[in-house]
Write a structure and sequence with these properties.
Elements lengths: L8 E3 L2 E3 L6 H14 L2 E2 L24 H12 L5 E2 L2 E2 L30 H9 L11 E8 L6 E8 L2 E5 L4 E3 L3 H10 L24 E8 L12 E3 L15 E4 L5 H4 L9 H10 E8 L8 E4 L5 E4 L5 H17 L4 E6 L35 E3 L14 H16 L1
Parallel strand pairs: 9-17
Antiparallel strand pairs: 1-2, 3-5, 4-11, 6-7, 7-8, 10-13, 10-16, 11-12, 12-13, 14-15
């Protein structure tokens, strides 16, 4: 996220609210997170970047020849495509356990351990310490507070089918924006009848997930690219003379095969046709900010099942972003562009259900991600986002976790 993303932003269909803290609180931790996750990229190429920033820890990933041609054609139209920052352990390809830029990166586990993900960069290194224990297969069912309701004193979990109780001075919830809200709601008690940390009634509300679509640019020529996810376009991210309102962000996805494309198309589309499309496509991901809406929320049914209510908003901006970019793709040699909006079940950018703010009546967490209602309960995942911006939230989640950890230590 850039400085403007933390301020109120006017869009075509409404406003994105400001955060209670600004970019300066996150800047040093963004840098730490980029180093921790071995981010490859190139400063000065993203048109949205502001100010003097420390270089990425590693140079950008190389474009495949056909992707370089796409980048050159976009630049010839006056756009500013840039290397997509990527978290990979890419060194000398001949080095053992180094990324080899293979075809199964997006959506698959890495057999080489070269994906710079949370397990590789954080969990495994932490497990080397004697005071760190990871319990796999544990489902926390509820949190229990002290008699006065001011502190969480234990977590009740089910491990291998048996109930176990855990306790600690500090309790951190980080289950993802949907399940963090669910855990707090399921922990309702006499002291907290609406659920933990929910005196404001805001737990589970303001669910955001971005407006997202896949754009398959179909070329007459066969696409031989193996590792495709190296290029991004931010020319429509902020207001400009030609775009009076922000539209969003675009980047390449991992190369899709016909089999990977099949969920996006009707069942009657024959596998040979899907395979042909996969061999002739360059695959893009378009995303636009969605706004916090209290009625977009996570609740529990009477039978304790998770319920999601979500009505999309800021759709006109997303449609305009796609219209502009589809026209651009046709100009650079992709006469057919297949537009596949993401369904509700695609929740990989979920955020906002325990938003951060200074007012305990309208937010769940304070600036330090501690709940307003309980003195030792924190929520440190994307639940804290007051707005979604239009970039992937992962780096902001990591930077915020480092920021909150520093607050504890000081």
């Amino acid at each position: 996220m850039q400085p403007q993303d933390f301020a109120e932003v006017e869009h075509q269909d409404g406003y994105s609210p400001s955060w209670c803290i600004d970019y300066a609180h996150f800047a040093p931790y963004y840098t730490q997170a980029e180093k921790l996750y071995k981010v490859h990229g190139k400063r000065g190429t993203d048109p949205c970047e502001v100010g003097e920033l420390e270089h990425y820890p590693f140079p950008p990933l190389p474009h495949a020849p056909q992707i370089q041609q796409v980048a050159d054609k976009l630049m010839a139209l006056g756009l500013s495509p840039f290397p997509l920052p990527m978290a990979l352990d890419y060194r000398d390809p001949a080095t053992a356990e180094s990324c080899i830029l293979c075809k199964t990166c997006d959506g698959y586990p890495c057999k080489l351990g070269a994906k710079a993900d949370a397990e590789t960069c954080c969990v495994q290194p932490a497990l080397q310490y004697p005071n760190v224990t990871l319990i796999a297969g544990a489902e926390v069912e509820r949190l229990v507070t002290s008699a006065d309701g001011k502190r969480v004193v234990k977590a009740i979990a089910r491990v291998d089918g048996e109930s176990q109780t855990f306790s600690g001075d500090c309790v951190v919830v980080s289950c993802g924006a949907v399940n963090s809200a669910v855990l707090l709601l399921r922990s309702a008690s006499d002291r907290h009848p609406q659920g933990l940390a929910n005196s404001s009634g805001m737990v589970g509300r303001n669910l955001m997930k971005h407006n997202t679509s896949k754009l398959y640019g179909i070329s007459p020529e066969t696409q031989t690219t193996v590792f495709q996810k190296t290029l991004a376009v931010n020319d429509f991210y902020y207001s400009t003379a030609s775009n009076p309102r922000p539209l969003g962000h675009i980047h390449l996805m991992g190369k899709h095969t016909g089999e990977m494309m099949s969920p996006d198309f009707p069942d009657w589309l024959m596998p040979p046709l899907l395979e042909w499309l996969g061999k002739h496509s360059v695959d893009w991901w378009a995303q636009t900010e969605d706004f916090p809406d209290p009625e977009n929320r996570v609740t529990l049914s009477k039978t304790n099942k998770i319920r999601i209510d979500y009505t999309p908003n800021n759709q006109s901006a997303h449609q305009e972003l796609k219209t502009k970019f589809k026209s651009i793709l046709r100009q650079i040699g992709f006469p057919i562009v297949l537009d596949i909006p993401s369904p509700l079940k695609i929740m990989n950018h979920q955020c906002g259900t325990c938003s951060m703010g200074n007012d305990s009546k309208t937010s769940v967490l304070n600036q330090n991600c501690r709940t307003h209602d309980l003195e030792n309960l924190y929520v440190v995942d994307a639940s804290f986002f007051p707005s979604s911006a239009a970039v992937n939230p992962t780096l902001t989640i990591a930077a915020n976790a480092l920021r909150v950890a520093d607050i504890w230590l000081t």
